[in-house]
Each structure stands twice: as C-alpha cells, then as structure tokens.
Specification:
CATH superfamily of the largest domain: Type I PLP-dependent aspartate aminotransferase-like (Major domain)
CATH class of the largest domain: Alpha Beta
CATH topology of the largest domain: Aspartate Aminotransferase, domain 2
Number of strands: 13
Helix content: 40-55%
Number of helices: 19
Largest sheet: 7 strands, mixed
Radius of gyration: 24 Å
Strand content: 5-15%
Strand order of the largest sheet: 1-9-8-7-6-2-3
CATH architecture of the largest domain: 3-Layer(aba) Sandwich
Distance between the termini: 71 Å
Number of domains: 2
Length: 441
Amino acid sequence: MLCSRRMEIDPLARALNETLTREAPTVFALLSERGKRLFFPVEGILGQTSEAKGSAMNATIGIGFDDVGAPLALPSLLKSFNLPPEDVLPYAPSFGLPQLRERWGAMLREKNSSLSVRLSLPVVTAGITHALDVAAALFVDPNDSVILPDPAWDNYALTFSSLYGASLSSYPAFRGAQYNLAALEETIARSPGSKKIVLLNFPHNPSGYTLTVKEAQDLAQLLRRRAESGDTLLVLLDDAYFGLVYEEGILRESLLSILSNLHERILIAKIDGASKEDCAWGLRIGFLTFAQRGMTDAVATALEHKAAGAVRASVSNACRASQAALLSLYNSPSYDAEKVRTFSLLHERYREVRRALTDSEIANALQFLPFNSGYFFCVALPTWCNADVVRRALLRDHSIGVIAMGNLLRIAYSSLPRKHIEPVLQTIAQVCRSQNPPENR
C-alpha cells in the first residue's frame, strides 16, 4: 500500500522562503502552497552545467555540437532564420537570455518614466498566457478567489479556475461610460480572508477600454485603502495591449507606475510581452516583472528564482530563436519608426470605427461598451437578441467573423482593413435589427 506523506520542501525553496519571510513577510503570505515549494535548481544538472561552461571538453550539455564546437544544425532548418546557429538552436536559460531581460527592463522604464521603485529583472516566459500561468503557480491556491471584471478574456477562467482550482469573483466592468471602481472595491471587501488577488487588464480585452488618468488615481486610492485596512494584495497587471492608447486624458503608462509604490502590503506582478506590443504574436515571448514598495534586491532575486523554477518545471525555457530575434529587433535603429507605423495604422482604424458610429442607422441599431484603446470594441446586444445567433448569421450569410461573448459581440478592428469597417458595422446593425421582437419590427 502506498503511504501518503506531506510533501517536503527542497532546501533551495526553503532558503528562498526564509528570505521572503525575513525581508517581505507580506509577499511570503501571498505565495500559494505550490509557490512555497518552487525554486530554481541551481545545483543539479543546471548548476553543474554552469560550472563546466568554458571547459576544454564539456560533456554536460544535452545538445549536439560538431567537431569544431558549433551546434549541430540541419542546413534546411537554418534557411528559415537570419541568425547564426548559436542564436537559434541551443537552449536558453530558464530565466531568459540575460541581454533580453536587461533590455526589456530598460524599455519598461523608458515607457513608464514616472516609475519610482526598484523592479525585479523580468523573467522570460513562453508568451503572456504562460506568464499568467507562472504567476498562478506562485500565488494561486484552490481555495483562493481571483477578482476580475465582467466581461473578461475567457483564458483567465481556463488558467485560474480550470487549471489551478481558484474561484472567480467578477464585478461589472462599467457603470455607464466609466469604469466601475465602486463595484471593484465592493468585490474586494467581500472576498473572504485577507489575501486578495486582483487582476487588472488595460487596454481591456474584450472591450478595448483603458482607465482615464483620474480613474487610475482613484483606483490607487482604493487599493491603498484596502491595504491600510489589513488586506494583503497581489495585483496582476495584464498589460498585453500596452501602448495602444488613442485618446487624450487616458492613462499612457502602465498602472505599474501608479500602484507599485502604494503600500508594502501590495505586490505587483506585471505581465506583458512582445505579442501585441511588437506584432510578434507567434514568437510566444512574454515577461513577468515584480514590484513592491521597499522591495529589496534579495526579495526581487527570490521572486525571480521562484518564477524561473516554474518556467523550468513547465516548458524548461522560452524559445531561444524568438528571444534572439526580439533582441535583434530592439537593437535595430529603425525599431522606433517601425513601431510608429504600426501604431498609426491601428489608430486610423480606431478613428474609422468612431466615424462610422456617427452613422444614424448604425448608432440607432447598436450600443457599445466604452472603448478608447487596444484592438477591439464590443457591441452590447439587448437581452432578447442572442449574440451567438447573430454571430452565426453574420458568418453564414455575410462571411463576417466576430466573437460572441454572453450578450456581447467583440469586433477586432485590428484585423479589418479600414475600408471594410463601415460595411461590417452596417451589416452587423442590419442583422441585429432582424433579431428584434415581432412587435418592434
């Protein structure tokens, strides 16, 4: 008969836990049971491989080299890359390429110039979804509740609830044209226990909304009040669409700038990546960065090691070729100009959506959630109108694809040529009108 026993914690994990308990007890209190067990294995195979680096005859690395020390390569494979074999084929560190981590961290500060706290060095993940998974591994237990807006990206439920067993506590994202901060505060207050996990996603998927500067300041005060009342908060910032902001008066920097220095009882986990910011969706490179008021080097290092341990335990490391390609991009003298061009294209499509909404036939048939940024906007359908029926009719009769989410249709203008935006909206309005109750036809 198998005998069950309490899982022992590795000495390396125990050392990280002792560091956090000593220097940041509120951070340790946020860790899940899994997070307490996580560590980066600096001693076993990886540690011994590191010690042997540079040796004349290195038989530690589990990859193949030719007789002159270059990675074994299939020439037909290398034809697909404009990079040397050593930048494409070997494994990357579980933390990520050091140069890429440094570069992304520097860019993060450039894009958020009002940042005033120490940050951890970003840990590279296999995409933003994987960064969310790593954060969940560190902090989410089955009895935890993750607080997030409604509507929300459906992958949150898959990761936090289906995979990690947490419950989801949602609140209506909007009250009229404003973000519903009062509902957020109420949801935090009634969430059981003092550990609170709050997920914030701006620009918001699916609505395409970013907080105004005033709303961001009010949010900061809300979270400060909760921390001062005794709550210990983990704030997950899903910044997948960072930078795609199209209106004045909207927050241009990440919420990281405003929230990271609020209170010692608030830990920020910033989740971002190249997918949307750099039109590099399929390269699957994301980043996980931590911030806390008064965070020490030792605390930052401990969190980096735990995050890298989660990477090592799941995918081992993010794709080296993708990391090398991004590092080359970020060092390119034309990078900034290229970014301006792609932003301008999306901005033009956003303006075309706004212009098309002034058409009386469209405006009278459709209602929209607030939007000012990102890739999407949402049509809010009346209760008697079935969003999936409308979606199927658009696809079947007009070859138009949209996403149905509850009573919403999410339309990605990011993937629509400008000339198609108004015709698509006109068709959606037409199909929605056809769904009216008989008495209203």
